[in-house]
Structures are given as structure tokens and as C-alpha cells.
Amino acid sequence: MDSLINAAARALASGDTLGALKRVATRDDAPALALRGIAMAQLGEFDSAKVLLRRAARAFGPREAVARARCIVAEAEIALVSRDLGRPATKLAAARATLEAHGDRANALHARNIEARRLLLVGRLGEAEALLTEAVPETFPPALRAGHELVTAGIAIRRLEARRAGEALRRAGLAARQAGIEALAADVESASLALTVPAARLIARGTERPLLLAEVETILTTDALIFDACRSLVGHRDQTVSLASRPVLFALARALAEAWPNDVARSDLLKRAFGARHVDESHRARLRVEIGRLRATLRPLVGIEATSTGFTLAPPPATDVVVLAPPVDEKDAAVLALLADGESWSSSSLALALGASPRTVQRALERLAESGKVQAYGRGRAHRWVAASVPGFPTALLLPGALAID
Question: How many whole angstroms separate alpha carbon 278 and alpha carbon 366?
Fold first, then answer.
């Protein structure tokens, strides 16, 4: 490696991106192309960076498998940052295997962190956790250890494990300080905000209050009958019933839970579940059918009794009923939750992360754009969506893994 390449690499490592570019800007050999690609990525010029890295990967000779693998890892990181989640993961896994086989342990660990972060974003928490478990963070260099702990914290937050997330973030902060990388420390600080802002609202016996993630974790361990409006499920102790694919039933269940111990009038249930403004006999008949279905579905957890004016829940004796609601009730909350990370997303990547069809996500984005909550820019394959400022809109509870949206 010549002196200019060495100097450019040292400049990149120290954060002097422009200094690195000055040293290799006019060169088109493979190492220079790779360094120019990484420098452009650090400047936020992702499209140019990807082109340069692909040229570099092609320019490296057949005996330079490690250098090509490093280019693939760098391009995968750019794809992750620009939320291009549709790329095949096999290419990155193969690059990681090459790096491990040739003893480039640091870059192999970096590739592993990138793979885990991608799996976390698309809601495949178990696979992300398994990938991290194969590595031993104590032996990592500080920067890689911080990245590893950030992914660990992200998984814990999605699993609503506040204490575990807090411990991982504390370790990530310590490693970031040891690494001396300000951007990494800022990432840790940003991730830590998830533990300090309301993650949900607790609705019980006619009262309502915001909850931090740690409080949500505590609520989930109590004996209360919980109607989780963030994940559309009903749970009591170790039993849960998911109503994620039955929005009408969950709307009825939530209305009954919010009113408990009082009943809910039939007309109010019709408004909540069907949006009916004028009640007729067909609405009443449909309500009877849906209440029958809900009663059968929730029978292992709670009874539903008819009253003179409507219906009410009949939980087991000495059992409280609470509703965990999102911090902001929003029809397209899952899309907003992903966009709240401040990055620009393509609609196809949003669809992949949410497990929804591209058309469904596109309709949600159009509704949000009409209300001024998201903005689009770019054309064709570069078309991206970003969130407008949504005060007090955390993502923690809204993304408990792959979420379906209506």
C-alpha cells in the first residue's frame, strides 16, 4: 500500500473526510476508489459512494478477496443507513464469511453488526439475537462493542425489556467514550431517549396517564387483564390472545376495557367498531354477531355480559382491567414509528419492515402526506419518505417486531 493510500486511510479513521479525499481524489486504482467511496458515504453522498465501492470491488484482483469483501460490507452499511432493506442479505453474509476465513476479525464483526441491525429493522428479532450471541462483545474493539450493544439495546426495547435495554445502552455509552468517536456517542445518546420519553398510555377506570418503557415492563408482569392496543392483543398472566388480524374485534374489546367497570352502550360500540353514525337493525345484527365472536375468542381470559343498554366485561374476581394505548392514537402509527428514526425510507423498505404490501404502505404514506406528517423527495428508485416533526412520538412500543398495518 503506498504512502498516499496510507495517509488517506488514516485521515478517514480520524474523521478528516475532506483531507482523505484530497489525497485520492484523482486516482482510480482499486484502493483509492474504495477510500473515495467510504469518504463520500461519510459526507452523505450515498449514491456516489455506492458507485465508487462497486467499481473498487470489481477492480480488486482475484487474489484480493478480503478487499472485495470489505467493499461489500461498506456498501451494505450504506444500504442500511439509507434504509435500502431490499438488498439480498446473502451477499453480506458471504462477505463476512470471507473476512472471518482470512482473519480480518474486526471487519467481520462489523459485518455481523450490520446484519443484526438489518434484521432488527425488519422485525426478525430472534435471528438478530442469534447472530449477536455468536460473538463475544468483551473482546471487541470499543467502536465495534458500542455497535454490538446498540443492537442489543434495540432488540431489548422491541421486546419491552427496559432494564436489559438500559444496561446495554450503558455499556454502549462506555464503549463509545473509549472509542472517542463523537458520532457513535451521539447515536447512543439518541437511542437512550427511548427510555426517557412516554412509550405508551395507561387507561384504567376512567383515568389516563403516560408510561415510560420501564413502567410498561412492570405493568406486563402484574396480574391485571391487559388490552394491549399497541400490539392488538389481550393478555392475562401467561395467556395471550392476538387480535392483530381482527381489527373490529379488538376495537370492541378496547372500548369495553376502557369503560370497565362500567358498560358501553350499543350505539357507542357501533361507532367505535364500525364508524356507524346512524344505527339501524342491520348494524345491531352485526354487533350481535361480532360480540358473539369476541366472547368466544376471549372466553379463556374474560367474560362479556349483556346489560340493559349494552355490554360490559366480566373479568375473574380481584382482577383489574387496563388498556395499554400508543402514545399517539394514529391510524398509520406503524409507518410513522419507523419514519420517526429520522432516516429517509423507500416505500418498499417500509413494506418489508412492516410485513405489509407495498400498495398498503403507499396508501398510508399518501394519507400521512395529505395531513403534513410525512414528506417525499426524489424520483424513481431514489424516491424517499421522511417524517415531519412529530413531537412526543416515540417508536418503542409501536414496533414489537413485524407489525401488520390495515
Answer: 29
Identify the CA nearest to 252 among candidates 210, 203, 213, 304.
304
Q: Do 105 and 113 touch, CB atoms closer than 8 A? A: no
Pair 330, 336: CB distance under 8 Å: yes
pLDDT of residue 397: 42
Rounded distance between C-alpha atoms, residue 343 and residue 121, angstroms: 12
| 377 has pLDDT over 90 | no
What dotted CATH number matches 200-325? 1.10.10.10
Parallel, antiparallel, or unpaired: how do β-strands 321-325 and 225-228 relate?
Answer: parallel
Class level of CATH domain 3-194: mainly alpha
| 248, 255 contact by CB (below 8 A) | no
pLDDT at 69: 93
Indicate the Cα dihedral angle 44, 191, 389, 15, nearest 10°: -20
Domain boundaries, the chain: 3-194, 200-325, 332-387
Confidence of residue 399 (pLDDT cuts 50, 70, 90): very low
- Is pLDDT above 80 for 107? yes
Three-point CA angle 285, 291, 297, nearest 5°: 140
For 48, residues 6+ apart whose C-beta sits below 8 A from its C-beta are 37, 40
CB–CB of 336/368 below 8 Å?
Answer: yes
Mean pLDDT value across the chain: 87
The listed CATH number (1.10.10.10, 3.90.1140.10, 3.60.20.10, 3.40.50.2000) that belongs to domain 332-387: 1.10.10.10
Q: Note whether 3-194 and 332-387 share their fold.
A: no
Q: Which residues fall within 8 angstroms of residue 393, CB to CB, at 6 or more apart?
A: 327, 328, 336, 337, 340
Taking Cα atoms as reference points, which of 146, 159, 167 lies closest to residue 120? 159
d(C-alpha 212, C-alpha 203), whole Å = 14
